[in-house]
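Bug report

Summary: C-alpha cells for Vesicle transport protein differ between web form and batch submission.
Environment: batch mode, default settings.
Steps: 1) Submit the sequence below via batch. 2) Compare with the web form result.

Sequence submitted:
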Amino acid sequence: MDKLKRVLTGNDSPDEESGIMDQFNEATTFSWSTRIKGFIACFIIGILLSILGSFALFLNGGIRVFAIFYTFGNITSLLSTWFLMGPFNQLKKMFAPTRVVATCIVIAALILTLIAVFVLKTQF
C-alpha cells in the first residue's frame, strides 16, 4: 500500500529527506484512508451525474439537461483524482508534454458541449 501511495503522490524514494514544503504538505493533507474515500465518493458522484445526463436525453428538451449533467459528471470524475495525488501534482501530470494535447482536447470538448447548447441554442 505504501508503494502505491508513493507512486500516486510522485514520491518514488521513501528515504528521501523532506524539505519544509513537504513537511507543510504532510501536516495539512488528508490521511490515506480519507483520500481513498474521497476519491471513491467523488468518482461515483461523477458517474451518476453522467448516467443521469444520458437518461435526460429521452426527456422533452433534455439536451440542455444532458449537457449540464454530463459535463459536471466528467469534471467531478476528473477532480476525484485530486484526492489521490493532490491538485498540483495532478495538474503537472495532466499538462506533461506527453499528455498536454489530450488534456486540451478534453477541456475543449467539455467547453464546446456547453457552448453548443447554451450559446448556439442547438435543438434536436
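Above is the batch result. After comparison, the two runs are identical; trailing whitespace caused the diff. Residues 32-56 form the longest helix (25 residues). The chain has one domain: 29-118.
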